[in-house]
Design goal:
Blueprint: E1 2-4, H1 10-21, E2 29-31, H2 42-45, E3 55-57, E4 63-64, H3 67-77, H4 87-116, H5 124-143, H6 154-169, H7 175-178, H8 180-190, H9 193-197
Parallel strand pairs: 1-2
Antiparallel strand pairs: 1-3, 3-4
Bound molecules: glutathione.
C-alpha cells in the first residue's frame, strides 16, 4: 500500500500512528505529493478528487480517503481494536474522534488563513471563528479527559495529533494553561516512542 501524505499534517500523523500500532509499517510506503489549497497539483487530483492528504492506495490500485476512512480500513484489514465495537460505544468514540478531528480541521484552516492567504485578504472574524472552534474543543476535552492513557484508541490518537499540531504551529495559544488536566494526559501520551517517532518537530 502507499500512503500519500506529509508528516506534519495532523491527519497524516494519525494514520501513521495507526499504521505503527497495527504493525503495518512494512506493508505501507509513504509518498509525499504537494497538497495545497490554492496551488493545484493536477497529477495528484487525477488520483484523489479533493486533492487532500492523506490518501491510501490499496494493493488493488483503489484509492481511499479521508483519514477516518483510512484508519477504519486499516483497523479492519489488520483485525485491530483501535475502534470500539458496539452501537453506542462506537458512536461515542467516533464522536470524540470527530471533535478532535474537527478542531484539527479548524487549526489547519487557521494555518492557511494566516500563513497562506495574503495578509491584505485575511479576515479577522474568520480567524476568530476558527479559534473559537479550537478553544471550545480543548475546553470540552478538559472536561472530558480520556479516562486512561491508552493510546490504542482512535479518538485518543486523533486528540494527541491535534494537541501535537497546536504545539507545532500555534505554540502561542498556550492551550495547557486553559486545560491543565488534558496537559497531564498529553504529557504521558507524548512520551510514547510512536509519538516521538511521528512528531512534526522530529
Ligand atoms: N478531513 C480530512 C482533512 C485532510 C486535510 O485537510 N488535509 C490537508 C493537509 S493537513 C490538505 O490536504 N490540504 C490541502 C487542500 O486543502 O487542498 C481528513 O481527515 O483526511
Amino acid at each position: 500500500m502507499i500512503l500519500y501524505g506529509s508528516p506534519p499534517s495532523p491527519f497524516v500523523r494519525k494514520v501513521s500512528i495507526v499504521i505503527g500500532q497495527l504493525n503495518l509499517s512494512q506493508k505501507v510506503k509513504l509518498e509525499s505529493p504537494k497538497a495545497h489549497p490554492t496551488e493545484i497539483n493536477q497529477d495528484y487530483y487525477a488520483l484523489v478528487p479533493l486533492g487532500k492528504i492523506p490518501a491510501l492506495k490499496l494493493e488493488s490500485g483503489q484509492f481511499i480517503h479521508d483519514s477516518l476512512v483510512i484508519c477504519d480500513y486499516l483497523n479492519e484489514f489488520a483485525n485491530g481494536d483501535l475502534i470500539t465495537k458496539g452501537l453506542l460505544p462506537r458512536v461515542e468514540m467516533l464522536t470524540r474522534h470527530s471533535i478532535a478531528s474537527g478542531a484539527a480541521d479548524a487549526a489547519v484552516s487557521l494555518r492557511y488563513e494566516t500563513a497562506v492567504r495574503p495578509e491584505a485578504l485575511q479576515w479577522s472574524q474568520w480567524i476568530d471563528g476558527q479559534w473559537h472552534k479550537v478553544t471550545t474543543a480543548i475546553k470540552w476535552f478538559e472536561e472530558n479527559v480520556p479516562e486512561h492513557s491508552d493510546l490504542m484508541q482512535l479518538d485518543n490518537i486523533a486528540l494527541a495529533c491535534l494537541l501535537g499540531y497546536l504545539d507545532f504551529r500555534f505554540s502561542d495559544l498556550n492551550w495547557r494553561q486553559h486545560a491543565p488536566q488534558l496537559a497531564v494526559w498529553f504529557n504521558t501520551i507524548n512520551e510514547l516512542s510512536i509519538m516521538k517517532n511521528t512528531s512534526p518537530n522530529a
